[in-house]
Design brief:
GPI mannosyltransferase activity, 22 helices, globular, mainly alpha
Length: about 500
């Protein structure tokens, strides 16, 4: 009866979560309009839209780019910060070297919607306003879907519907909410990263590879999602070689995992090659070549980040940047606390890269450790039959059954069995650690708030703290932090003041 009720409970929680996600987007939109009506933007140059460098032959009966009416002006004036670049790419393509820092997935979806679904609105408000509207629809819809996928992933990993729901609600009101409702790539990255994890945990590895590859088309850190494939491949190859003594199977697992990782990184690499062809190809004289074109490994993205934005190891460690470190300190503190807490509880997983997880944890439904879904059906069937025959040969013992039951109960209550401290969380914690270290030591540190906002362990750990009676005060602190950054972000960001 309980099992029959569980799916309905999950679907009911999911429908409630959708309402929370939609309400959170409406709240951010309301605050943005409110602050924008009270304050004068610091920079109003975003509304300027010079002609594209490459003039295209435009038919005489083509719809206008700009239409002078209040709605179109409101939409165009709402474009701030990086949103200007994404819309410029949508309209004119990649014109300048520094604009290659913005990957093409979001401009592609904006162009797709503005030329199909919202095309009838072009004569009324103009093409540029339609592109702005399309951008808002894409990012906000992607956020709602990302919240749904986070809940589904959380249910598989945490094996606790209530904890998963809490974590997903926190995500709906996360401190970087303003970026998920603006024309930024965070929403698409979160959707394809978390959605890719869900498909990986569900056994659809090829679909997961496609989603991870798309996340790499939204943000460069999407290629780090290949780490989940590497982790799964490592454990499956170990099981095939050392536990099952099947060399061919282990080689097959390694080759498959390698191909999947290459497929995840391929779109990002192809985009770098596209930039190299546009900027470096065709120049005969070395004096005409950009410095990065002459490198042995010409990486356009790294050069842009270093040359135009000053990104590099410890380059942001300056006294004048102290306010930005303070701005990023809450999210970095939460990340460090979640990692340290996990390390203290499960140190054996860090020292063994997860190989000391219990057999029960390795055979969980998350499919991160086990090789079962890779094996042929006949092998699984034969192993099940052997297990059944062994059970029939055993003599029932009441004392033994009681002992086993007690041990199972102890395991289910231990942090190793479920919840935030389960072995399934380990690869996510490692991924979070790598992202947090990159944000602190290499990037502009204030970007950490939105850079880490799509990491599921942050919300799992926050949910764990809120539900714990010992840490009840942390719940109020967590929600105060989210509320303060939603208010502050909508106030500063929407009026072109620096936020993160």
């Amino acid at each position: 009866m309980a099992k029959a009720m569980e799916p309905s409970s999950k679907s009911r929680k999911e429908s409630i979560l959708i309402k929370y996600a939609v309400v959170s987007r409406l709240l951010v939109l309301f605050l943005t309009i409110l602050w924008r009506s009270f304050l004068q933007p610091y920079d109003t140059s975003a509304a300027l839209n010079p002609p594209c460098l490459r003039h295209r032959d435009v038919p005489e009966d083509s719809p206008p780019l700009l239409v002078a009416n209040p709605l179109s002006k409101t939409l165009e004036n709402s474009v701030v910060w990086d949103s200007v670049y994404f819309l410029r790419i949508t309209e004119c393509g990649y014109e300048y070297e520094q604009i290659y820092a913005f990957l093409p997935l979001l401009p592609f979806f904006i162009s797709l919607l503005s030329r199909t679904v919202f095309a009838p609105l072009v004569p009324l408000i103009g093409l540029r306003a339609v592109m702005v509207l399309s951008g808002y629809v894409v990012t906000n819809l992607a956020f709602v879907l990302a919240a749904i996928y986070l809940f589904r992933v959380s249910v598989i990993i945490l094996k606790d519907t209530e904890a998963s729901f809490r974590a997903s609600v926190i995500f709906c009101f996360n401190p970087a909410s303003i970026f998920y409702s603006s024309i930024y790539s965070e929403s698409l990255y979160a959707l394809f990263s978390i959605g890719g994890v869900y498909h990986l945990l569900s056994g659809a590895s090829n679909v997961a590879v496609l989603w991870f590859a798309l996340s790499g088309c939204a943000r460069s850190n999407g290629i780090l999602n290949a780490g989940y494939i590497c982790f799964q491949t490592m454990h499956r190859a170990y099981e095939a070689l050392y536990l099952r003594r099947r060399v061919c199977l282990s080689v097959q697992v390694l080759i498959t995992g390698f191909i999947r990782c290459v497929c995840i990184c391929l779109p990002f690499v192809a985009f770098q090659a596209y930039g190299y062809y546009n900027i470096c190809h065709g120049h005969k004289l070395d004096d005409e070549l950009r410095p990065w074109c002459k490198a042995k490994v010409p990486l356009l993205y790294n050069f842009i980040q270093s040359h135009y934005w000053g990104v590099g190891f410890l380059r942001y460690f300056q006294f004048k940047q102290l306010p930005n470190f303070l701005l990023a300190s809450p999210i970095l503190s939460l990340a460090v606390c979640s990692i340290v807490s996990y390390m203290k509880t499960r140190p054996e997983l860090f020292t063994s890269l997860g190989f000391q997880a219990t057999e029960k944890e390795k055979s969980s439904s998350a499919r991160l450790y086990s090789l079962k879904d890779v094996l042929e059906p006949d092998v699984i069937t034969s192993s099940n039959e052997v297990g059944k025959s062994d059970i029939r040969q055993r003599k029932p013992s009441k004392k033994k059954d009681v002992t086993v039951t007690n041990n199972a109960a102890e395991k289910s209550n231990s942090p190793e069995a479920s919840g935030y401290f389960s072995a399934d969380v380990f690869p996510f914690v490692v991924h979070l650690g790598l992202m947090a270290a990159t944000a602190f030591f290499i990037m502009h540190v204030q970007v950490a708030t939105r850079f880490l906002s799509a990491s599921p362990p942050l919300y799992w750990f926050a949910s764990h703290l809120i539900s714990s009676p010992k840490h009840s005060k942390w719940g109020y602190l967590m929600w105060s932090y989210c509320a303060a950054y939603i208010l502050l972000g909508s106030l500063l960001f929407s009026n072109f003041y620096p936020f993160t």
